[in-house]
Design brief:
With 215 residues, this protein is an all-alpha fold. 68% of the residues lie in helices and 0% in strands. α5 (102-136) crosses α7 (168-185). The relative contact order is 0.17.
Length: 215
């Protein structure tokens, strides 16, 4: 982890690789692998912390507002733009383990915790701190977080959209919002908070509305 590039890229790559394996090892594997990757992700965040100085949560009204706006766009734009249906079987623990069973609620809580506490640091460090600055200049550590330039801004957002292809439009808007927050505040912590707020509200929406397609 001593390499600045490795510290920011390797944990995200491992997490993404585990995500791609969900569903490969049987019908229960999406749930067990989500638990495993969440635990590994939390462990990797602990390893990253000494080497990624910008990975610090910052609780701010700007972060909360951005998170709420992105959540509203994510659910509000559904069905209003062309998007591929690539999700396959919906991630629904109540359908797989039985409605209201302990295992179903266990994996719901795992998903809430993982998406709220583990995903934001890993993705924000990779996309907003590393990728954006690396596109601007391979010597990315010498690019300030506040640096604003068009090509990296658009390219990083486009790649974030491709990574969330079924939800590409809100994902691109999300990337614009989070990256803009990083540039404006000159720190990563507000975007991590915004990402956590978005994912937590989306989790509540999924549970309340039974909108499992978002997971």
């Amino acid at each position: 982890m001593a390499s600045p590039l490795l510290a920011r890229v390797a944990p995200f790559a491992v997490f993404a690789a585990l995500t791609s394996c969900q569903g490969v090892f049987g019908e229960s594997s999406p749930y067990w692998l989500y638990l495993i990757k969440t635990l590994i992700g939390a462990w990797m965040i602990g390893l990253m912390r000494p080497f990624v100085s910008e990975m610090r949560w910052k609780i701010s009204w700007e972060g909360f507002l951005a998170g709420i706006v992105v959540f509203a766009a994510w659910v509000g734009l559904e069905g209003l733009y062309p998007a591929p249906n690539i999700s396959g079987k919906v991630w629904n623990p109540h359908e797989h383990f039985g409605v209201q069973t302990r295992w179903a609620w266990f994996f719901v809580l795992v998903r809430v915790a993982g998406s709220t506490l583990v995903v934001p640091p890993l993705e924000e460090v990779f996309y907003r701190s590393f990728l954006y600055r690396y596109i601007a200049k391979p010597d990315f550590l010498n690019v300030p977080l506040r640096f604003l330039t068009r090509i990296p801004f658009l390219a990083a957002a486009a790649l974030f959209g491709l990574a969330h292809l079924e939800w590409w439009l809100p994902a691109v808007l999300c990337a614009f919002c989070y990256q803009g927050l990083v540039v404006w505040r000159d720190r990563l912590g507000d975007a991590m908070t915004a990402h956590a707020v978005t994912n937590f509200l989306l989790a509540l929406w999924v549970i309340w509305k039974g909108a499992w397609q978002y997971w």
